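FAQ: What does the model actually see?

It sees only this:
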Amino acid sequence: MRKASLLILIFALMTGGCFGGTATPERQRQTNSSQVQDLRDKGRQALIRGDVERAALTFEDARRLAESLDDRPGLAGSLKDLGTTAALRGNNAKAAEFYCRAHAVALEWGDQTLGPDCLSYRAQVAHLMGDHTAALSHYSQALVVSRQIKDRRGEAVILNNMGLLQQAQGELDKAEKSFRQALAINTDLAERQSMASNFSNLGALSEKRDRRAEARNYYEQALVLDKETENRPSIEADLVNLGRISEAEKRIEEALGYYERAYRGYLALNLRPKAIEVVKRLIRLSKATGQETVAVAYQAELDLLSAKP
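And it is asked to produce this:
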């Protein structure tokens, strides 16, 4: 079963806008912060499109600008964003380094909101690196602070990720409770993208319990929400999840349809490793159903993808 993906949520720092008239120091500070935030917003849009490389370059530009302007909130946020892209690239050690630096800057500046956010991301990295004790410690600290400052959005993120840790440890009932608490908060806040992640994680939990009909329902709800928010490549991940359920239920043609849509989506996003993973499923199922010509065509596409540098 595919490991449930960690929820990656980029919090935007509130910044002042540009004003007309004589530039006072405060107005200039707001203008500078706005420039950093604009770069971070562009990086976030690149992430939504699935362009991790472009996002990383843009976040690095934001970091350098924030440092040159001594914009401490912007610097903390940019470092956190760079941690996100490092994690997406699979460089967990580098991600941890960025998150630690972001957390230090946030504490130095006194930004209470960013503090638990960075603690949560440090916990995610510890989780990915297999250090469950450190992950639970960071999550617990972040959850306490988020509740103290009444950051419900941050609380939902932490609960969702605590659920993933609990699931990895085999504590399925605790994981379900955490996912449902996160979903309740996100539903109340109308955070549709986060709701989709909660549904996807509940689907993975149901699949682990061999409750396929329940898992399908959760994955379908995730797909609807991801489409509404145009959240790629989560849309493609939802399609793969549904294809896997259909395959387990021996609904092979339906599974092929889901996998084909996911494959074409990953190609459009230039996510070659994901595309390769899915086209291998298409080849296997096409052969299993006697569609040799189709399998040969997919194999040719796989050969081209594998040959690219």
